[in-house]
Amino acid sequence: MLYIVATPIGNLGEITYRAVETLKSADAILCEDTRRTAVLLERYGIKKPLVSYQKFSEKEKSGYIADRLESGENLALVSDAGMPMVSDPGKILVDELIKRGLEYTVVSGPCAAINALVLSGQDTSAFCMCGFLPEKKSDRKRFMDRFRELTATLIFYSPPHNVRSDLEFLKAELGDRNASVVREISKLHEEVVRGNLADFPEFTVKGEFVIVVEGAKEKENALNALDVAEHVEKYIADGLGKMDAVKRVAADRNRPKSEIYAEYEKSIKKK
Which letter, b or e, does each residue of 221-231 get, where b requires 16 or more Cβ atoms within 10 Å of its Cβ? Predict the structure, then answer.
């Protein structure tokens, strides 16, 4: 069995009992940086073989790891911080396990995107984890095409050497939206800076960053400027039946169909 284990994103105390027990019982631990994982294991008195598993070696090692799992070993997969596979290695290995019909599970824990979203003060009702912006400028605009019109809150990871230029790029692509920059999550110098992309406040460029940006405004339907009866009749004129027109108007105005129907019938009777 493969155990995908979330590990602390800053404070080493932020790890679950189950995660510690899983790491203790694993036959080996797959990790991005063996040195960083060794620090965590030492903190909890865990001594296990470490297998380097980085994004540059995912393809070549996934088959070998799947073979070990197929032979009956229990392996744990961790990233340097947070939840593996969320802007970290693991997807290629999981694809291989699914192809072979092998089981895997997740051991819950910290995720920088979720912590940053909650800290940011932005809308949490719907959100999209966008990951890191592409390094190549030629790829960035195409990358943003997927997110530009989303009304959900957008979450981007950003390395310290790129965070200011990433904010400038997001301003150019998204316009003047509310945004929050969250850094050093769960650490001593955790900080949240809030502002607008057009004129974002100064902040300390140190540590790991998450940029959280409000989603696009919902486009106003021009037909909503009509009164309800005119709105319904416009859809009827376009070929819809009365009840389908009422249903469409209710969706446009985010109101119950019964209210729209009653208002329409009342207006018709007055004529």
Answer: eeeeeeebbeb
Three-state DSSP state, 40: helix
Q: Burial level of 120, CB count in 10 A (0-12/13-18/19+)?
A: buried
Place of tokens 């389908």: 244
The residue behind tokens 């296990």 is: 48
Q: Using the 8-state DSSP alphabet, how is residue 206 labeled?
A: -
Q: What is the pTM of this model?
A: 0.77
Q: Record the tokens describing residue 95, joined without a space.
A: 């694809």
Encoding tokens for residue 138?
Answer: 């030629």
The two tokens of residue 169 are 């790029």
Q: How far is Cα 210 from Cα 181, in angstroms, rounded to an integer?
A: 6
Return the number of other C-beta atoms located less than 10 Å from residue 265's C-beta: 14
* pLDDT tens digit sequence for 16-71: 999 999 999 999 999 999 999 999 999 999 999 999 999 888 888 999 999 999 99
Contacts of 78 (CB under 8 A, 6+ apart): 5, 7, 23, 29, 30, 31, 32, 37, 40, 84
